[in-house]
Write a structure and sequence with these properties.
Elements: E1 2-6, E2 9-23, E3 26-39, E4 45-56, E5 61-67, E6 75-76, E7 81-90, E8 94-105, E9 111-122
Antiparallel strand pairs: 1-2, 2-3, 3-7, 4-5, 4-6, 4-8, 8-9
Amino acid sequence: MVQQVTSGIKISVVTSYEGSFYKNYKIQYAFGYEVTIENQSKDSVQLNARHWIISDALNNEEIVSGEGVIGKKPVLKPGESYTYNSGCLLTSPFGAMQGHYSMVNFTTTKNFKVIIPSFKLSATFAIN
């Protein structure tokens, strides 16, 4: 598990290897990840957008940006947390993800970024 706190918002990430399959004559490695967003600040906040940088061991990089997470824009009061699961496909058995969430503080009405710490994606069969 990796964790990081930015502006009172704690991000925790746990990853899993889900398996591999062939698509368009190329092998794809499937990874899952569970993210927990915990509001440790004294203000209510809302997650509005995400920005991911996904890279694999073959130097392929994909940028994924969009509104919310899994179709939701959760509001977190002080002390609340929100957990969701998602996944990605890589063309190698190793990779990494990192990025940030764009959030708004309801007390100050200011937008701010919360860092998603870099986390590794590793197929279990390839770990030595």
